[in-house]
Amino acid sequence: MTYPEKLRSNVWFLLPIFLGIIGGIIAFFVLRQDDPRKARNCLYLGIAFMIFGIILNVLIAASIPGLDSGFNVNI
């Protein structure tokens, strides 16, 4: 079943920007029948922000000098 393509607002791109992959999935399922190209782009944007967030967390965690596995606990 094909649906006629209906243009949706660009405000939908804010959902994956603020919520990452979850926002991308939500936007994808809402937009997939009306505007499939924008739905796919929202999903890709959510994936890109998820990967960027993971890389940023790894870089920040690696820069903390006092982080070790012992936590100075004696049993």
The proportion of residues forming helix, as a percent range, comes to 55-70%
Rounded average pLDDT: 86
Q: Strand-residue fraction?
A: under 5%
Number of helices in the DSSP assignment: 3
Cα-based radius of gyration, to the nearest Å: 19 Å
Shape: rod-shaped
Q: Which structural category do the helix and sheet elements fall into?
A: mainly alpha
**From N to C, what is the helix and strand string?**
HHH
Extended strand count: 0
Task: Give a quick account of the main beta sheet: strands, pairing sense, barrel closure.
Answer: none
Distance between the termini: 66 Å
Poorly predicted regions are none
Using brief descriptors, characterize the structure shown.
single chain; 75 residues; mainly alpha; 0% strand
Question: What features would you describe in this structure?
Answer:
The protein has 3 helices and no strands. It has 75 residues and is mainly alpha-helical. It is rod-shaped. Helix 2 packs antiparallel against helix 3. It has a domain of 49 residues.
